[in-house]
Amino acid sequence: MTFSIEDLRRTERLHVRAWPALQTATIGGWLWRCSGGGSQRANSVSTLDFSGADAQAALDEVEARYREKGQPARLHSFSAGRPENLPDLLSARGYGQGETTTTMMKPVGHKPPATGVEMGEQASAEWLEVYLGAITESRRAVNSLILERVPKPRAFFACRQGGRVISTALCVADDRCAVIECVATRPEARRQGGAQAVLAAIEAFAYELRVRLLGLQVSETNAPAIALYGTLGFVAVDRNRFWVRD
After folding, report:
1. CA distances, 233 to each of 71, 79, 209, 214 (Å)
2. Whether the model pTM is above 0.85
3. Domain for residue 244, yes or no?
């Protein structure tokens, strides 16, 4: 299946909505986000849209706002962001390229109900134990607050084996696509099919909602995860990059 620029933009917009920062502001159409802690997305500017007349002036405001918070200026870009020459503007201002993520997508297909997978509108204590245990300590407190703000329709998925939750994921949807967040597995339970089970359950959930596209973002350096998603039919469609200026 060929994915259009509008598919990419819609999926990116949902990724932004699915991970709501604690503080936001609109700067020339960009979404300035600040939350503290170690979450890069929740402490960066989404450059999905730009309606301003002067990108340099917008960057001045971005940098001033982060300076007031005692944080480095950070922007999040992708190929369909605005303005199109943003990478050149950032490089010229001394921004360095940080982490790069790969956006992967697939058409939603019919999946049978997954066995051993629980679904709920709230994150259970066991779900949080697995997910928060898989991320850095600097991200845990803020990410816990963000999870409480995730918009509906949403669903938290947990694969249970041997009486305990071993894998987690979160799905957020709109009327045409759904995105996957918070995929995590206990270290001692890897390669036991937990991640595959929650991902299959998410696709079944998306199918029931009658959305047509399923997307996710994964660190470009996470080769095992990228390989797993590939076996499930996801294909790489874009790269997202964080730009940072101290």
Report:
1. 38, 22, 19, 10
2. yes
3. no
